[in-house]
Predict the structure.
Amino acid sequence: MTAPLLLKKGFTLVEVLVVITVISVLASAGYYTASSVQQTVRENKLESDVVALNSAVQIYEATGGDLSDDSLSGVPGDTPEEKVLTKLKIKGDVNTQNKYNGVSGSLIDARMSTGDTVSSGSRAVWNSSKKIFEVKTSGDPGVKEFVLSDEAATEARAAAGGSAYVRDGRVIDAADIKQGKKWVWEYTVANAVDQPAAGNPGTSGGGGVTEPSGDAAAPEPAGSVSPTPTATATASPTPTATATASPSPSATPETGWNSGTIGGLIVNRLEALNGILYGSVQMLSGNSFTFNGSTELYGDLYLPGTPTLTGNKLSQMVTNVVDLGGSPNPSGYEVRFDGGKFGENGNGTGTVYIRVNPPTFETLDQAYVNAIKNNSTAGLPVIPVGTQDITINGGSKYPLTGYLPGGNYKAVTVSGELVLGTPGQTTTYNFESLTVNGSGKITINGPIVINLKNGGSLNNLLGLEGHPDWLTVYSQGNLTVNGGAGIVANKIVTNKELTLNNTIDVETGIIAYSARVNGGGVITIE
């Protein structure tokens, strides 16, 4: 008997087509997802690269570089973006390194290349008017992504032809192009241009605003004055007054102050002294003022003209009044002694000097004194600033290595760490304003001068303990030191108000239009 045949059942054509369709859909979805992720990663990288490149651009300009359209003419590269990268690989020549404090070498990896140029999708485009890279999705073609390529470094050397050429004090030298992968930074940098030379000849103690030299000098608006105006303040000879107590600092008959040194707090108006001041005070105008129970002045008081000295504790607090024979005006304003401490030891041995003429200083300090007396900005130097802000977020450090080059910057806000100063030489910074938040920290590597166009607000320490000589501050706006903050400086000069809610340690002294020392405020003038 023959065995029955076994029936074998397979997939129908319809089933096979359904399976193939499902697999195709899943594969397409996976490919789309992977492509979308890759696109997002590429766009995020492009954004990050643009931030890093713009940081390099601003530092390059701050140290004398030129990225104008004219300067890009003849620079190796087929597109503006490629030309800018070539310029950022420049290393400054010897003159540049001597002239500018800070970064003088190349600012990006020599292997940096622009990759493909595209006209659609996200792309980096060089904005020649703003002098920054921008990420755009429409308009001009741009760079799809920046890549690192050994071929780019080789081409850079070949393009230079083995010889260097100089542009605006910097030199393109392919043989000196920086090697290594150190071009990504995590901070936002201002457009800093036209850095003044370190120091400021013609000022007492150095520093201050200097005229930028050469073609890079910042233009001054109509009616502005020379950054180092020469002011002459002389006093007529007067009879020598016989002091019954030795003042501190020792007074001359003409001014009541050591010639050429600040030596204390010089202020047009003393609005409030509800804290402690270790040092002497000279007022330039006749505003009425009261010593109250919270006032502690461990020094002497120098007053213009012929004030009226009065108060419930006048006889206990003031043991000597010395007439220095200066101008009798202003007159009639009242200085009351109703409480507090006065004198070198705070024990009532303080001396009040009257008819004190204004002190005289070298050029820059004298310009501020003149402006303060006249409540005017006439005669003050113009402080040039950059065009973009610097913001250092909490937990960030700028720069990761080295220090911020001296130069012109806009509003500076520090919540992380900012490193300033060049070891062994004076570095000058021009800021539109300076804000140091509670989490902010400024590290100083060497002597610096900070010029503030619109003043500043401090919520943490500015300066370096043990090195007051490393910091000099000139401000043309209000300067506020809040609780938890402090300043350690050589000197502080402002033609506006100084408000103190914490401590200031000053080596040379303070010049201000007005001063307000609130409870908890302490000024120590060594």
About this structure: The mean pLDDT is 75.
